[in-house]
Design a protein that fits this description.
- The complex is a heterodimer of chains A (598) and B (280).
- Chain A is mainly beta and 598 residues long.
- Chain A is built from five helices and 39 strands.
- Chain B contains eleven helices and four strands.
- In chain B, the strands form two sheets. In chain B, strands 1-4 form a two-stranded antiparallel ribbon. A two-stranded antiparallel ribbon of chain B has the order 2-3.
- In chain B, a hairpin with a 2-residue loop joins β2 (112-113) and β3 (116-117).
- The longest helix of chain B is centred in the first third of the chain and has 23 residues, at 45-67.
- Chain B is globular.
- Classes of the chains: A mainly beta (598), B mainly alpha (280).
- Chains A and B meet through α1, β21, β22 and α5 of A and α1, α2, α3, α4 and β3 of B.
């Protein structure tokens, strides 16, 4: 930052005045930029957004769930509030095959109960978790729930569930009568994994679901009985002292074989989220991984034999704090984009969220297009794509906020000290400043990003204007049509807070179409199936995934908005078995149940 | 025919010795290249090209416009490199690189006292950005992997470079002052000593120690004075930090970059005082 010897002061006066004016003008410009962003005015009225309006109805419809965080070994009390700040997960399922989308949400505190909210089909929900055997899962010695993933591992047409934990994950087989049997023992899944993500997908295309379980904290740590306080990441950037990722090959009979080493899962990153889809178009399901304290990974499936980390595709050079992975067709170009949330905090850290459009086929890489509202969503966690206003463009919902405690005291400054530490200091929780009752990116506002189409900045943030106003610490968000209205409702699982259901009261007669899949050779859930629809001149693509976002699952319904198009729709389905199905003249404004050809 | 014996006047070929500035330039380039290669510290070539280009073009235009001559671009290059290493704007925006680069270079031509510019250029640009637009700009989120070996190499090479540039006393005085004051803060605040010492191992402090604090045109003349000034900078930074630890009103303004802002405040005052004293 050396500067040259000062130039002699001999310029003409008018030239000095010109330069001075420019200088002052630039400083004013910077001030204005900072001021405008910090004090953004009220958002435009909801009517400016095609009548989009959400109403929070959880209590009205019978959902009264509050997530409770776990407590851990007092040896790490100084930052316990930070360590235990995850666990609010939610998944959409249809456990009783009645066509109504149900909700399963988890809590984490010892003795706290998970909730299975059965959709009664009349606009109300009923918690049947206790009767189903899915409530009482959080106990000392077996760990605490972090989320769940639903899939029919035995192909009996009833969705089963794996509850992943910091601890011993638990597998439940759906008996088909509204109850579940805990079949963990003898399943091959008996392993202590401090996990924040799991995912059902069929990696070897045998028609039977396989299970991915991602590791966050190292497996050697029992967070309730720590042998050492050195449990944290070794680095904020490129940490490799996290948990192992596991792949369990399903046998279809409730047993699984750990094939992690065989397929090349040998890293110990801090995995927070995973999403399975065929990213390179070879017909095999790949895995996109979001890691905390490190770069994202795309694990390309080598014909069911191995997974290889894709190199040179624009992921490995960027180290951020990956929290969630969502998949959407933001350009209606039959080209999927991956959205990975990260952390942004004014003055301290602008990692920015990533919105990467998949150009593997043409450029051999992803193209990063996040900017403005899509890039900065605060301390962002769960995210999901969905066409909220049925205008035929996929929008984006992002929940955020880490620790909302004191309204006045903040931990960012204290954390910034340790953030620069070198040589393993960060890994030792005992060396972190005491967080006390401080907040850390608390009281942030859920973001609703409306897709404006190909032109402009693509997405516009309208959360408060459309009625999504909570400032709780959102972790997981899922979207589904719970009330058979053809509109996507929004469910937010909040850490140490209420589960919120925002009903979509869209005041617009835009058209839509929904699909529910029933697979055969691709497994009954048909995860991984791609659906392309053509309506008029426009095309859209969806991929049916199990896990999506952070600790979330959107359930079995695939929803498309059609805008004002009311004509017949063509749909092409590409199943993971390799079969293709072309359907003509589908009527809009209906749910279509599609069965895989035998 | 006789010839007059001529003494052998051919001297041994002069050994090329790089100037201190050349050594510093090479060092910051090394940090940039290795940091980008290993850890993506620059955030991509687009940002790098934009910032360096803006610095060089601004320097050229201002030098031509105000002085009627073309400048040496080495200083603009160092300023640009420092900015791209430290600036971290909100996602997807590039204007802070351009504006900070222009402001940094302009500060040399506008903010002058007795024929000298008062602020280290990149320090000025960074401080203005973080003070006026913290919602748009942060300073450095990459820590070179928090890798002990990498940081040890940078400190070792940096100290050698500082020695060659005859500014080692400045770097050592600051680092020592920071360390002692960190221990004091640890005792006062009750945080672990390593947590208070930790920032010293980060790239922001490396750049501060080896480039900003030691910038010859913006330091006072005497060696003792230079040491005293960086001691005061360390003390002011310590006050900024304590203000945040004890949550004094408005302390959050200086929280994101205490050392940058301490230099921003103390450096020009010290230099102006020195210039005035010497011309008296």
């Amino acid at each position: 930052m050396s500067s040259p010897a000062s130039p002699p002061p001999t310029p003409a006066r008018w030239r000095q005045v010109v330069v001075l004016a420019l200088f002052v003008g630039l400083i004013a410009f910077v001030w204005d930029k900072g001021r405008n962003k910090a004090n953004r005015g009220p958002q435009p009225a909801a009517t400016a957004h095609h009548g989009l309006r959400f109403v929070e109805v959880s209590s009205d419809v019978g959902i009264d769930f509050v997530h409770k965080p776990t407590s851990i070994d007092p040896k790490v009390d100084m930052i316990a509030a930070q360590i235990t700040a995850t666990g609010a997960g939610v998944a959409v399922c249809d456990f009783n095959n009645d066509g109504n989308m149900d909700l399963y949400t988890v809590s984490s505190a010892e003795g706290s109960r998970n909730g299975l909210y059965k959709n009664l089909g009349n606009g109300r929900f009923e918690d049947v978790a206790a009767a189903a055997g899915l409530a009482d899962l959080n106990h000392n010695g077996v760990g605490c729930s972090m989320g769940s993933i639903w899939g029919d591992f035995d192909n009996d047409s009833f969705q089963d569930v794996f509850v992943y934990k910091w601890g011993q994950g638990e597998l439940f087989r759906n008996r088909g009568d509204g109850t579940f049997a805990n079949v963990t023992q003898g399943s091959g899944l008996e392993r202590w994994i401090n996990s924040n993500t799991a995912n059902w997908f069929d990696y070897n295309r045998d028609g039977i679901l396989d299970l991915f379980v991602g590791g966050y904290f190292g497996e050697e740590h029992n967070l309730w009985d720590l042998k050492s306080t050195k449990i944290m990441q070794e680095s904020f950037e490129f940490a490799h002292n996290g948990g192992r990722n596991h792949l369990y090959e399903g046998k279809g009979d409730g047993t699984f074989v750990d094939v992690s080493e065989q397929v090349g899962f040998d890293t110990t990153r801090w995995t927070y989220a995973s999403l399975a889809a065929d990213f390179n178009g070879d017909g095999w399901q790949d895995l996109y991984i979001a890691n905390d304290y490190g770069s994202e990974e795309l694990l390309l499936n080598q014909e069911g034999e191995r997974f290889e980390s894709a190199q040179g595709i624009g992921l490995e050079g960027e180290s951020k704090s990956g929290m969630s992975v969502a998949l959407g067709d933001i350009w209606n170009g039959e080209r999927m984009a991956v959205y990975v949330t990260n952390i942004s905090k004014a003055g301290y850290l602008f990692q920015g969220n990533n919105l990467r459009v998949n150009f593997l086929d043409r450029l051999g890489s992803f193209s990063q297009v996040a900017e403005g509202a899509t890039a900065d969503c605060g301390w962002a966690w769960g995210s999901q794509f969905g066409d909220l206003n049925n205008d035929a463009w996929q929008d984006l919902v992002v929940v955020n906020g880490f620790i909302s405690a004191s309204q006045d005291r903040d931990y960012w400054y204290q954390m910034s000290k340790i953030g620069l530490a070198t040589g393993g200091v960060v890994a030792d929780a005992a060396l972190w400043p005491d967080i006390g009752d401080r907040s850390l990116s608390g009281y942030e506002r859920t973001r609703v990003l409306l897709n404006r189409g190909r032109t402009g900045a693509y997405f516009r943030e309208v959360g408060e204007a459309v009625g999504i106003t909570d400032r709780l610490d959102g972790r997981s968000v899922v979207l589904s049509d719970f009330f058979h209205t053809g509109r996507l409702d929004v469910v937010v699982a909040n850490q140490n807070g209420r589960l919120l259901l925002y009903r979509n009261d869209l005041d617009d007669d835009a058209n839509w179409i929904e699909f529910r899949l029933k697979g055969h050779a691709s497994g009954t859930d048909a995860f991984g199936t791609e659906i392309r629809i053509t309506h008029g001149e426009r095309k859209q693509l969806r991929v049916h995934t199990a896990a999506s976002g952070f600790a979330g699952q959107n359930g079995p319904i695939l929803h498309f908005g059609l805008g004002d198009f009311a004509g017949p729709i063509q749909a092409t389905l590409r199943w993971t078995s390799g079969k293709e199905l072309v359907l003509q003249d589908l009527a809009p404004n209906q749910l279509h149940v599609i069965e895989e050809p035998q | 025919m006789s010839t007059t014996a001529q003494p052998d006047v051919k001297a041994a070929p002069a050994r090329w010795v790089p100037s201190p500035k050349t050594v510093i330039t090479a060092f910051i380039t090394l940090i940039l290249v290795v940091g980008e290669w290993q850890y993506g510290i620059a955030g991509g070539y687009k940002k790098l090209g934009l910032t360096l280009g803006t610095c060089v073009v601004t320097e050229a235009i201002l030098s031509w416009f105000l002085l009627g001559r073309w400048p040496k671009i080495q200083s603009a290059y160092i300023t640009g490199t420092s900015l791209v290493l430290l600036l971290r704007p909100a996602g997807g925006i590039y204007w802070p690189f351009v504006v900070a680069a222009v402001l940094s270079i302009m500060a040399k031509y506008v903010l002058r006292y007795r024929g000298r510019h008062l602020w280290n250029p990149s320090n000025f640009g960074l401080a203005v950005m973080v003070l006026l637009a913290p919602s748009q700009v942060a300073l450095l989120s990459h820590e070179l992997g928090n890798d002990l070996f990498g940081n040890a190499v940078i400190w070792t090479v940096g100290l050698l470079v500082a020695s060659r540039a005859r500014v080692l006393h400045i770097s050592i005085t600051y680092a020592t002052s920071f360390a002692l004051l960190a221990l004091l803060r640890s005792a006062l605040v009750g945080t672990p000593a390593l947590a208070e010492l930790a920032p010293l191992t980060g790239p922001m402090y490396q750049l501060l120690c080896f480039f900003m604090l030691t910038d010859p045109p913006t330091t006072v003349r005497s060696k003792r004075g230079q040491m005293l000034v960086v001691l005061v900078i360390a003390v002011v930074e310590c006050v900024f930090r304590l203000a945040n630890d004890f949550e004094w009103p408005y302390a959050e303004i200086v929280a994101p970059a205490p050392p940058i802002l301490a230099l921003f405040l103390v450096g020009p005052i010290a230099l102006a005082w020195d210039l005035r004293r010497r011309s008296a």
